[in-house]
Structure formats: C-alpha cells, structure tokens
Amino acid sequence: MSRKLLTLGVATLLMATTLQAQEVKNIIYLIGDGMGLASASMMQLENNYEATIFDRADNIALQKTYSLDNRVTDSAAAGTALATGAKTNNTMLGILPDGTTPQTLMERASEHGKATGLVVTTYIQHATPAAFYAHVKSRHEYATISEQLLNSDIDIAIGGGMAFFDERYEGREGALEAISESGYALHHNLDDGDDEDKCLFILANKEIEHREGYLAKATAKAIEHLEGDDEGFVLMVEGSIIDGAGHGNDAEGQQREMLDFMEAIEVAVAFAERTPATLVVVTADHETGGLSLISSNADFNLSEQGVEYRWTTNGHSGIMVPIYLYGTGAELINGIVENSTLGAKLKAIIAE
User: Fold this and answer.
1) Which residues form the catalytic set?
2) Model-level pTM greater than 0.85?
3) Which of 49, 238, 275, 341 has the fewest CB atoms found within 10 Å of its own CB?
C-alpha cells in the first residue's frame, strides 16, 4: 500500500472515529427562566469563587434572545425559538405569525423513537415548557394548552398546573377522566411509582411552592423513567422561578432558586459523565431584572469594597445569555448564536 493511500485511510478512520464520538443519544436541556450571566456570576461570588457547576462546563457559548417582533423577548417567543428553532412574536407559542406550526424538539425526538420528558417548578402549561409541545396563538390559552399536552407524545411531565386541567374539563372529575382516557397515569406525589409508560406528576394547582431539593429530585426521577429507552431520550428541565425572583428584584430569592437549578444541573451532568452519548445544554430563555454586581465603594485602594446587587428593571432585559455545554457533542455549539439557532442545532442533532 502506498504511503499516500495509507495516510488517506488513517485520516478516514480518524474522521469516522470523531463522528462516532460525537454521536448524541440523549439530550438534557436545562433552561433557567430569567437567568442571565449576572445570575451565574452572583452564584460564583456567593461561593467565594470556588468552582460552581457553571465553571465545569466543557464548552461555553452565548445566545441572542430578541423575538421576531421585539428587541426584548417574552418567555413564549424565547421558548418557541429554543424548542423549535424558529423565532416568533411575543406571546405566540409554538406558532409563527403566518400560522405555521414548526416542529418542536420533543416532536422531532418522538418521530425518531426517543422518549421525552419535562420537569418544571412552575405549571406545566407555562410558556417555556408549553413551547415544547403546544401550538397556540397566545401563551394564555391554558385550557387549550392543557388539552394539547394530553394529546402529545410527552412520556413524563413533572410540575404544577392541575387548576388548568380542571378549567378545561369543567372540574376535577372531568379532568381526571380526560387524563385517564389520554393514557397518562396521574400522580400528585413525587415519591409515587411511575411504572406506566406515560406519567403526569402534577404537584400543585399552579406553581410549586419552593421545596428545597425538589428540582434535582424531579430531574433524577425523570431521567430514571426515560433512560431505559433504547433510542435515547430528550428531557427539558426548567428552573422556572429564577424569573419570578428577577421580576421581584429579590437577590436572595434568586440565589435560592439558582441553587436549586444548579443542583438539577449537577444531576444531569453526573448522568452524562456515567452515560456516554449524553449532551447536557444549560441556558436561559432571557434575562430578567437587569441584575448588576457593583462595588459598594469607589475607592479601589481598599482591599475589599464590598459588592451590591442592583436591579435596573422589574421586567425582562435584552442582554445575551450564556449557554453551558457538557458531555458528548459539547463542542458542536460555539460562539454567539441566535436562540433559534440553538433550537435548530439541537433538532439537527436528533436527526443525525
């Protein structure tokens, strides 16, 4: 064999090995609602700059969050971009202004035989989680969104939102009947079994009140339910109330919610470390509150001036938000990207 052919053969083998190494079977997509770079920086500072889960990322990128009709997005448009790879107008959910309904990441995963799941701290019909299975003109169509969840291929969903099933089906009795007929097993306690193929863990009428360790436990529960699928799975986990603390300009509250979210990331990354072909993606739909970390004193000759957390709005901001990547395929997303580009890349990875 000539040296040229040998070199070509080695290069081909290396390329094939690289592509095989990049094959992604499972995606765990964690979205901190309202989490900006300042939120992550705050947690580093509060940890005395000891390494946090964010510091352990294998790769880091940034995403632009603006919507199709507004330089400052809401959760519906941002969630749609992250879930479908398409930008839309604020308040629209899984649907474009011309009425087109782009395929969601979960729908793509189901099409390719993968199991799917959602875990949130808010109600499961809220904008970000609903963007992964619903297609409505307004994020506030909770009754319709509830119906679309029951008609979806989501295998496990954990969060709040029982009140919206009651509303759609004219009371609890009608809601229980509709859920049963849809093929879902309904549980109101996270410690209940989940031997059924399709499970709803609806733990509150609307949002779930703060429960220390809940999000990590729910994430582990969902992974345990999904990981037996031969074709792999896609799981979306939302730290939903980070956003509420931002709207309330509540730094201590946001730290508490961020800690819970970071614990869930730890669970996902630990799974990725022991399970090859798992990609963990951590990002936000937008930043809330315009948080800044500023010096308490302008005299920088002091050894420590102190740091204050200052907020600039009780609404959303238009700043870029981070993307932290871990595990197999972490190198596939780089630089500054549109939120829709991130969604589209994850859908493309599913199809590979």
Assistant:
1) 75
2) yes
3) 49
Which region holds residue 34: left if phi is over 0, alpha if psi is between -120 and 50, else beta? Answer: left
Supply 247's token pair: 């709207």
In the DSSP assignment, the letter for residue 34 is B
Q: Alpha-carbon distance 22 to 68, whole Å?
A: 32
CATH placement of domain 31-288+309-351: 3.40.720.10
Residue pair 294/280 in contact (Cβ under 8 Å)? The answer is no
Reply yes or no on whether the pLDDT at 299 is more than 80. Answer: no
Query: 287-288 and 185-187: which strand pairing?
Result: unpaired
Site of tokens 């169509």: 141
CA angle 172, 142, 86 (to 5 degrees): 145
| Nearest CA among 215, 105, 82, 113 for reference residue 159 | 215
- For residue 19, the model assigns a pLDDT of 39
Domain range annotation of the chain: 31-288+309-351
Give the model's pLDDT for residue 156: 98
